[in-house]
């Protein structure tokens, strides 16, 4: 049975089987964003909302 036919029976798009994930190294980005967040919190501390 063909891939397209099986996918049609399952209600899936046939391109799902050809999808390949790309491995990424987000470590440096996460580190930079964390540093920016820490710097922002030093300038703008979080204040409780007292309403």
Short description:
The chain is mainly alpha-helical and 51 residues long. It is built from 2 helices and no strands.
Task: Set out the fold topology.
Layout lengths: L2 H8 L16 H17 L8
Q: Helix content range of the residues, please?
A: 40-55%
Distance between the termini: 65 Å
Provide mean pLDDT, rounded: 84
Discrete helix count: 2
Q: What order do the SSEs take from the amino end to the carboxyl end, as H and E? A: HH
Q: What structural category arises from helix and sheet content?
A: mainly alpha
Strand content: under 5%
The description of the largest β-sheet is: none
**Which spans have pLDDT < 50 for at least 5 consecutive residues?**
none
Structural features, described:
The protein is mostly helical and 51 residues long. The chain is 49% helix and 0% strand. It is built from 2 helices and no strands. The radius of gyration is 23 Å and the shape is elongated.
Tags for this model:
single chain; 51 residues; mainly alpha
